[in-house]
Design a protein that fits this description.
- The protein has helices at residues 3-37, 41-69, 71-91, 95-123, 129-153, 161-167, 170-179, 187-192, 196-206, 212-222, 225-229, 239-254, 258-271, 276-300, 306-329, 335-350, 352-363, 369-397, 403-425, 434-446.
- It is an all-alpha fold.
- The model has no long low-confidence stretch (mean pLDDT 84).
Length: 447
Amino acid sequence: MKKRIFFYTFVAALGGLLFGYDTAVINGALPFFTDHFQLTASMQGWAVSSALIGCIVGAFFIGRLGDKYGRRSMLRVMALFFLISAIGSGLADSLTTFVIYRLLGGIAIGGASVLSPMYITEIAPPKYRGRLTITFQLSIVLGILVAFYADYLLLDIGENNWRWMFASEAIPALLFFGLLFFVGRSPRWLITKGKLAEAREVIISVNNDDDVESTFEEIKESIDTDVVESSKILLQKPYFKLVIIGILIGMFNQFTGINIVMYYATDIFRTAGFSTESAIGQTVLIGLTNLVFTLIAMQLIDKIGRKILLLFGSIGMALFLGIFSYFFLTGTMNFVLVVCLIGFVAFFAASQGAVIWVLFSEMFPNNIRSRGVAIGTFSHWFFNGLTAFLFPIIVGLFTDGKGTSYVFAFYAIATLASYFFYKKYLIETKGKSLEQIEKEVFKTEDK
């Protein structure tokens, strides 16, 4: 591979780092701004899930905007949104102001979660596309870990510690914005806009010389401008089935409960009897586990494939979720719960966490990729927001303190069900060009 592909991938993946940072920074800040604003359970759920509403909005609208203005240009806009949100959340003087800035940050997360992995997928050579696209997930994991650690370091700086936790995100946001002026545009987007010379230059800059013309011609042949411009085409064969599968992938991803762990791990551990400082310390262990097993998945995804990782992970996650639910229900308030969540996160990171963004970016044909990825990502954020909002409310309904156990039992069942869905409806995409995947998908649809 040429060196430039690594730089382009690194820059685009910074969108993932900000995604992870923004998602996780609220975990350590939650007890402190809850006290500062005197939040009830429902208000707390709103404070956490408000950013996720922004994610839903960002994911829903960014597909069409990405098609119109380009992936790179819209990523610059998302970087500015991250920057404004970080500073505004830290300076918020009321819950309303806080929520407005979190909504803006959510729009940035939703947009980046569509555009960053899609951009990497569209510039990456087929042989290395899995591990290059997975750098987006690796960056999410790094962002989560850095946020957890930043929360821990800022824990004892005073009553305004939560403000600095949110404001610290401005540093990577500014870096992301600046570096986006030094990357090329997606060659597949350029070809849809008739900018063939520039597209060829980008392909040359990231591919081996002997692959350039065949790659260029294969992309050209797969583009149908009428389909790209059509709004109704997603409801017609052969695209509609892919849209439904994308929606269900997003749903099953959130029904693992992964983001409940990322948002509420501190409160879950506090409920289990840990001190606030100890609970935040446990989240650092979860973040490290997430990182290590994402790196493992990075080495495996182009060797054993996406589908096998998903199937293996579904079984492992369901097992640890079930064990966690059982021990929480029986009142085993000790480090067994920590071990269960670490085991769950390990299987998630090695499977769904690593694969989902690769899968979204690969499974949709060139003509509808931006919109297809946006719909799948919209589903991801919709169910993310729904579960994040409902979690404290549902837990609060059970006065015996067992609500967390029942929620995790549901996640165990849903995750086991996802095994059968992935086995039946997904094809393996490792080592194939995006255009080859497109032909295989259409061939399957014709049967």
